[in-house]
Amino acid sequence: MANRIQLLPDHVANQIAAGEVVQRPASVVKELLENAIDAGAMRIELLVKDGGKALVQVVDDGSGMSPADAGLSFRRHATSKISKAEDLFHLQTKGFRGEALASIAAIAQVELTTRDAEAELGTRLRIAGDTVQGTEAVVTPQGTSIQVKNLFFNIPARRNFLKSAQVEFRHVLDEFQRVALAHPGIAFRMVHNESEVHHLPVSNLKQRIDHLFGNRMNARLVPVAEETQIVAIGGFVCKPEFARKSRGEQFFFVNDRFIRSPYLHHAVMAAFEGLLRSESYPGYFLYLQVPPESIDINIHPTKTEVKFENEQSLYAILRSAVKHSLGQFNIAPVLDFEQDQNLETPYDYKDREAMLPGVSVDRNFNPFAGEKPASRNTGSYRPAPTRGWEARYEGLDPDPELQPADWVIESETRQEPLFDEGAAGTPGQAGLFQLGRKYILTRIKSGLLLIDQQRAHQRVLYEQLLQNLSRREPASQALLFPLQLAFGRAEMHILRSMEEALAGLGFRFSDAAGDTLELTGLPVLVPESEAASVLDQLISDWQRHDGAGDFSQVDRVAKELCRALAVKPGTPLDPESQLGLVNDLFGCKEPAMSPFNKPIHVTLPLEELEKKLNFHG
After folding, report:
1. How far apart are CA 465 and CA 322, in angstroms?
2. Quick one: pLDDT at residue 117?
3. Sorting pLDDT into bands at 50, 70 and 90, what band is 384?
4. Are 226 and 317 in contact, with CB atoms under 8 Å apart?
5. Which of 192, 233, 283, 449 could make a disulfide contact with 226, Cβ separation 3.0–4.6 Å?
6. Which residue has the higher pLDDT, 459 or 345?
């Protein structure tokens, strides 16, 4: 029998390893930025073209490499970070496996230029598809510059899986933000298609957050600080009123390394219990420092998942620290037995002197003067004569049929309405009935019709928006005073990518400067008071449903907009609103399905109801 097991060629093994480490251009950005940080760089520049598919270049002023180290750096499992297995449990660096550069070189065209401090000349090395194409000495400043071009050029199947340049750039921007947040003491600069996206100077953590996400974050942040023998916790959480529908601004860092941890996320959510709206997520920037030997970061190729030694203790400490910060800054109600709130002086009266109250008493006042005992009479109500009561009714002609002496109290049956007006479950016009503040129930010839009010409103808004698109000049209401709205750089990038679609729906923007957007016009369906929240939710939904297969960008924006504007479950509707919604729904071209291919209404036939009630015979 012939042997069937054989060793794979090195270039095939490297391509397989690259599939674990490099999934998209953002993976390359992460590895190169972390290498620059491990090299001790204080200034790092990231240059990207076409979302990273054409070019990813990282330039740093770190220690650089010698010619021999430059060549070895592209060999698999060649690293300067560890030398024995025990070092894996005392890691102080970002990378340690020695697989990143080898994996990148296997599926891209790479050019490395580097020089260490002791050398007069640097080294330039060109590699394509794991094959060295040339090495030469060059004049270059101290540090390293590495260019990665045409990612997956030799694996067309993998390249076809990449998304559009805009989507890939958003992933690159996410990785850049994570690395920049972990190291506020390093200056970063990011350029995309020769346009500067970020220029981050050396700063503290709060300033770095403001630079990345806009000045509006300054008023939202609540500091968190706690230090124990197990963990030291620092950072910020966002106030509950700024919670969002998506999990965008949620960052965990352990020993200056970004991680994902559903377990720790649950601890933060437990600290916010009772303070958030339903299906809302708080933002947080939390930094944990733990002993390196108490965590294992070697359980995932991308090193974004770690395993803690004391998970339960860490959970309790994190939950307590966040909850304490929310209470300390009066975000959440707390009990403080050492402070009497009744003895606190209001700010308006803090510097004022106490004034003695003055009391005036009318000593001649007699509340019982002129009062006569009323005669007792059963079966009728006779008001007692009051002095001067006629003056209260001057100018009014008394009704001779209703004299005060003829008023008689009789027991009469009062018909109360079966349903409380305005409450959930109130019958409306044309036999409509709101059930659970979520459904509209109405009768038809064949039985009952149950309508989902949110999906029905989504369908109505969606067709109105598409009808607005068919006009040459979309209906838009001009704002008398333009709205100045602040967004982060990532959010501004999303809005710019949707600008043409938003303009087709009736939004009007002036030129955006930095992280500020001036809104000059709105669609007729969007109230001015809700413009900021609608755009914010539009961005959140766009991030949450990234990659959805829609026919066009305009169609997708219309769907996200109707999702943001539609009436939410739990909203009470008056009878007129119920009737109007049902009439508008059945005036649509597709009244049976929502824009997201979900059924809007269901019919309950009389036969089925009779069967359920055992009335079938």
Report:
1. 43
2. 86
3. very low
4. yes
5. 233
6. 459
Q: Which residues contact 64 (CB under 8 A, 6 or more apart)?
A: 39, 114, 115, 116, 117, 119, 122, 142, 143, 144
Cβ(179)–Cβ(147) under 8 Å?
Answer: no
Calculate mean pLDDT across residues 505-512: 77
Domains of the chain listed by start with CATH number: 10-200 (3.30.565.10), 220-328 (3.30.230.10), 434-603 (3.30.1370.100)
From the CB of residue 316, how many other CB atoms can be counted at a distance below 10 Å? 14
Tell me the pLDDT tens digit for each residue of 390-419. Answer: 554 455 555 555 455 444 444 444 444 434
- Quote the CA–CA distance of 345 and 352 in Å, as a whole number: 10
CA 246 to chain centre: 3
pLDDT class of 2 with cuts at 50, 70, 90: low
The two tokens of residue 218 are 């300054």
Contacts of 519 (CB under 8 A, 6+ apart): 479, 482, 483, 485, 507, 508, 509, 531, 535
CA 440/CA 586 separation, integer angstroms: 14
CA distance 220 to 338: 28
Spatial separation of the C-alpha atoms in residues 70 and 93, rounded to whole Å: 19
The residue type found at 336 is D
**Is 292 exposed, middle or buried, given 0-12, 13-18 or 19+ CB atoms closer than 10 A?**
middle
Average pLDDT, the chain: 78
Query: What are the b/e assignments for 231-246, b being 16+ CB within 10 Å?
Result: bebbbbbbbbebbbbb
Q: What are all long-range contacts of 89-95, with beta carbons under 8 Å and residues at least 24 apart?
A: 89/292, 89/293, 89/296, 90/292, 90/293, 91/292, 91/297, 92/255, 92/292, 93/38, 94/34, 94/35, 94/37, 94/38, 94/257, 94/303, 95/31, 95/34, 95/35, 95/38
Residue 483 token pair: 């709205």
d(C-alpha 32, C-alpha 47), whole Å? 12
Q: Which of 23-37, 43-57, 529-543 has the lowest mean pLDDT?
A: 529-543
CA–CA distance, 524 with 512 (Å, rounded to integer): 22
3-class secondary structure per residue, 503-543: HHHCCEECCCECCEEEEEEEECCCCHHHHHHHHHHHHHHHH
Backbone phi, psi, residue 252, to 5°: -115, 135
pLDDT band, very low/low/confident/very high, at 294 (cuts 50, 70, 90): confident
Radius of gyration over every alpha carbon of the chain, rounded to an integer in angstroms: 35
Nearest C-alpha neighbor of 531 from the set 491, 565, 566: 565
How far is residue 523's CA from residue 474's CA, in Å, rounded to a whole number? 8
Burial 201-228 (b: 16+ CB within 10 A, else e): eeeebbebbbbbbbeebeebbbebebee
Phi, psi (degrees; rounded to nearest 5) at 354: -70, 145
* First-residue to last-residue Cα distance in the chain: 75
Cα separation, 130 vs 14, whole angstroms: 8
